[in-house]
Design goal:
7-stranded parallel β-sheet; elongated; TPR_rpt; Serine Threonine Protein Phosphatase 5, Tetratricopeptide repeat; transferase; TPR-like_helical_dom_sf; alpha/beta; 44 helices; glycosyltransferase; protein O-acetylglucosaminyltransferase activity; 19 strands
Length: about 950
């Protein structure tokens, strides 16, 4: 009997050693022998439960834990093991109950507290988790891993002082090191002890010591694949990537099925850009160990990078099935779902990742990006700040936070922020990394032209990486126009064929092309939004294809190529909804940027950018990777004459009757305006001065009908004052301009022309009747401190003046007001209005006297809107495309005197308009006339100019 007992104990010790070294197969084999000998031995049952848990055989693990509990219902460790199974399955409440039961049975069970804390974190009970960690430390204050986890948790909860106490190095590390060193003094050539000691050093960030100690372990046991793999990890951390690669390869020569080495080597290959090799290695790791959650997640990440989103999603789901508390997989799956436009799914993934690991900086940053894209800027700012608290050196979070602060005009430490942004971009470009500043935001920061171009170039290269993964052969393109019957085939690609500013600008152009010479293809990247804008483009283009129904870029590019398009136009650039991969595949022989994106693509697959000499003068050509294709006037266009013909004419009410007639206090517009005016008594026509000369030619664009204060005028004013929707006067419906959405929503969006006479007044927006109103209707991110300072200077020099801005977004209003007050302006001098539907937005621009443009990034569509309303716009061109568009518009309009060369001149022009009433009237008359007479809003002329450019 004694011999059998010793044999049993020896076998049990061996099984434990095998389990600890990770040889689960041998440990299980020996445990099964032990179990057959003693089926009621709870120690064996517990070990079998743990082995099956490590091998992801959760049902078997639960089975052996249950058997152990049957033998001993007071066995805390068995309940804890069952809790682990429930936690891995994602059944958190069951897990928590089992851990709590284990702790009731054994109050000093430290592992139980640690497991309970992790489950509580995953369940979102942060306070409970803190208590569990604190309880564990009461029994052993030297547990480094517990201190570290507790410190991270407190940091995530914002309790930084408490966190510091727990993150300080604790004695347990020294004790662990001392223990291993004692063991080595007794047995200096014990390779496993050297390996374990190296792991402690590595965990502590003592990388050099870890490397030396791993090397010693390998000297003692050269056929030790785990040691080579761990050494490689440390070398990679140190930046010795080639040596790390060598070590992973050595581990794989010793053990070709070493899954960790396959996975980690794949990570290196991926970072080197050897994507296909990385994919093969990840797949091999999964062949060897199909339940390898990290390899599933890593493979998914590469597939996502290649645009294979469905396959990526499948692997993320596998990773989460295997490990339901795998926070990284949740966060990365969120990124994939976000790319697939599943915002709600992405939000759930990021939230779950943070529940599992509240100290997960990347997940906080990803959650912030969802808030940012949804317009929840305060939430985004809070999440980015949390991410940066947890990980101060986090360029993506920093640059995105900076952009959020720009959106809401929070200029705290503005200069420092700008310097840091520039240094981050410089460092990333130097290290050949993808910059954290997006190309579309680069014009907002003081970056060099070379930096802006390089940022765009990196994003262009990303598209090339994605299409290279498709291994598609290049297309052959026709050398002449024979196959198309002599017609030039032009394809417009956009995600914005619908209710979007881009469609508001160009929706008439496809239908205006000369069908004898041009065949027009429109390729939509977004589904039908059901608006008339979409219907118009679909009806008027010769061919319309919805590529959102062909998500595969390769197949979508095939479709474009099959259509035989000669010139393919990119209207998105790097804006939301873009699919630049289509252009990277080069389905057309000539590809050009146009209208929708205010900058260079930086991409070798874009040949031209359609622009003009004012926007992109030859001396600034180095900003662009494309050749400059010049339009004869401005490259910008607006469909305002077609969308808002009721604003071609206006009448005003002479509400003061003192001989001084204002053209922008109470304004009437309508398609039937002339007939309505003919029905009223005593309407007089006032001639507006233009170019300093009295108008005598009777040009209607320069004459303004004035309605005296009579019954009709009183009825109109009464309607506005009482907030009525509409009144009927002489059988004509006259409507309150604030009520367009209630009367006809299609008219409000600009899809239809209002059928009523529409009244717009300063009183509707709380604008003073007797003041000069300067306005700017841009999004607030386009305002920077120097611009607000210029505006404040102007308002101070024009005492009876106000500035009219939009709550775009509303959270920016208090910031602007505070900075303006710091500059010496009372809050009453700046008036904010809500963002309005499109037609009201354009129409109410008539109420302002002067528009003050934002030099940093001009009003582009909003510039066209305010000019169509007849309001002069003062601008100051910079050097970027985005800062020169307004000057191009004004040059085309024939109002070059509104273009300032510097800040002082900008202020002087604006002040002259605000103080010299005759000059203001003259410039308003000029803009009112020129919007009809010049080429700026002439879509037919523009289309012919565009055609000449295409033929060149």
């Amino acid at each position: 009997p004694t011999k059998r007992l010793l044999s049993f104990q020896g076998l049990a010790d061996l099984a434990h050693r095998e389990y600890q070294s990770g040889d689960f197969e041998a440990a299980e084999r020996h445990c099964m022998q032990l179990w057959r000998q003693e089926p009621d031995n709870t120690g064996v049952l517990l070990l079998l439960s743990s082995i099956h848990f490590q091998c992801r055989r959760l049902d078997r693990s639960a089975h052996f834990s249950t058997l152990a509990i049957k033998q001993n219902p007071m066995l805390a460790e068995a309940y804890s093991n069952l809790g682990n199974v429930y936690k891995e399955r994602g059944q958190l409440q069951e897990a928590i109950e089992h851990y709590r039961h284990a702790l009731r049975l054994k109050p000093d069970f430290i592992d139980g507290y640690i497991n309970l804390a992790a489950a509580l974190v995953a369940a979102g009970d942060m306070e409970g988790a803190v208590q569990a960690y604190v309880s564990a430390l009461q029994y052993n204050p030297d547990l480094y891993c517990v201190r570290s986890d507790l410190g991270n948790l407190l940091k995530a909860l914002g309790r930084l002082e408490e966190a510091k106490c727990h993150c300080d190095p604790c004695p347990s590390v020294g004790m662990a090191v001392a223990g291993y060193l004692r063991a080595l003094s007794l047995s200096p050539n014990h390779a496993v002890v050297h390996g374990n000691l190296a792991c402690v050093y590595y965990e502590q960030g003592l990388i050099d010591l870890a490397i030396d100690t791993y090397r010693r372990a390998i000297e003692l046991q050269p056929h030790f694949p785990d040691a080579y793999c761990n050494l490689a990890n440390a070398l990679k951390e140190k930046g010795n990537v080639s040596e790390a690669e060598e070590c992973y390869n050595t581990a794989l020569r010793l053990c070709p099925t070493h899954a960790d080495s396959l996975n980690n080597l794949a990570n290196i290959k991926r970072e080197q850009g050897n994507i296909e090799e990385a994919i093969q290695l990840y797949r091999k790791a999964l062949e060897v160990f199909p339940e390898f959650a990290a390899a599933h997640s890593n493979l998914a990440s590469v597939l996502q990078q290649q645009g294979k989103l469905q396959e990526a999603l499948m692997h993320y789901k596998e990773a989460i099935r295997i490990s339901p508390t795998f926070a990284d997989a949740y966060s990365n799956m969120g990124n994939t779902l976000k790319e697939m436009q599943d915002v709600q799914g992405a939000l759930q993934c990021y939230t779950r990742a943070i529940q599992i690991n509240p100290a997960f900086a990347d997940a906080h940053s990803n959650l912030a990006s969802i808030h940012k894209d949804s317009g929840n800027i305060p939430e985004a700012i809070a999440s980015y700040r949390t991410a940066l608290k947890l990980k101060p050196d986090f360029p993506d979070a920093y640059c995105n936070l900076a952009h959020c602060l720009q959106i809401v005009c929070d200029w705290t430490d503005y200069d420092e922020r700008m310097k840091k942004l520039v240094s981050i971009v410089a460092d990333q470009l130097d290290k050949n990394r993808l910059p954290s500043v997006h190309p579309h935001h680069s014009m907002l920061y003081p970056l060099s032209h070379a930096f802006r171009k390089a940022i765009a170039e990196r994003h262009g290269n990303l598209c090339l990486d994605k299409i290279n993964a498709l291994h598609k052969p290049g297309y052959e393109h026709p050398k002449d126009l024979k196959t198309s019957g002599g017609r030039l085939r032009v394809g417009y690609v956009s995600s914005d064929f619908g209710n979007h500013p881009t469609s508001h600008l160009m929706q008439s152009i496809p239908g205006m092309h000369n069908s004898d010479k041009f065949e027009v293809f429109c390729y939509a990247l977004s589904p039908d939004d059901g608006t008339n804008f979409r219907v118009k483009v679909m009806a008027e283009a010769h061919h319309f294809t919805d590529l959102s129904q062909i998500p595969c870029n390769g197949k979508a590019a095939d479709r474009i190529h099959q259509d035989g398009v000669h010139i393919l136009i990119n209207m998105n650039g790097y804006t939301k909804g873009a699919r630049n991969e289509l252009f990277a595949l080069r389905p057309a022989p000539i590809q050009a940027m146009w209208l929708g994106y205010p900058g260079t693509s930086g991409a070798p697959f874009m040949d031209y950018i359609i622009t003009d000499k004012e926007t992109s003068p030859a001396e600034l050509a180095e900003q662009y990777s494309e050749k400059l294709a010049y339009m004869p006037n401005t490259f910008f266009i607006g469909d305002h004459a077609n969308m808002f013909p009721h604003l071609k004419k206006k009448a005003v009410i002479d509400f003061k009757s003192n001989g001084h007639i204002f053209d922008n206090r109470i304004v009437l517009n309508g398609i039937d305006l002339k007939a309505f005016l003919d029905s009223l008594p005593d309407v007089k026509v006032v001639k507006m001065k233009c170019d300093g000369q009295e108008v005598t030619d009777g040009n209607g664009a320069l004459s303004m009908p004035v309605i005296p204060m009579n019954t009709a005028a009183e009825a109109i004013i009464n309607m506005i004052n009482q907030g009525q929707i509409q009144v009927t006067i002489n059988s004509f419906t006259v409507s309150n301009g604030l009520a367009t959405t209630q009367i006809n929503n299609k008219a409000a969006t600009g899809e239809e022309v209002p059928r009523t006479i529409v009244v717009t007044t300063r009183s509707q927006y709380g604008l003073p009747e007797d003041s000069i109103v300067y306005c700017n209707f841009n999004q607030l991110y386009k305002i920077d401190p120097p611009t607000l300072q210029m505006w404040a200077n102007i308002l101070k020099r024009v005492p009876n003046s106000v500035l009219w801005l939009l709550r775009f977004p509303a959270v920016g209003e208090p910031n602007i007001q505070q900075y303006a007050q710091n500059m010496g302006l009372p809050a009453t001098r700046i008036i904010f209005s809500p963002v309005a539907p499109k037609e009201e937005h354009v129409r109410r621009g008539q109420l302002a006297d002067v528009c003050l443009d934002t030099p940093l990034c001009n009003g582009h569509t909003t510039g066209m809107d305010v000019l169509w309303a007849g309001t002069p716009m003062v601008t100051m061109p910079g050097e970027t495309l985005a800062s020169r568009v307004a000057a191009s518009q004004l040059t085309c309009l024939g109002c070059p005197e509104l273009i300032a060369k510097n800040r002082q001149e900008y202020e002087d022009v604006a002040v002259k308009l605000g103080t010299d009433m005759e000059y203001l009237k003259m410039m308003r008359a000029r803009v009112w006339k020129q919007r009809i007479c010049s080429a700026l809003f002439n879509t037919k002329q523009y289309t012919m100019d565009l055609e000449r450019l295409y033929l060149q």
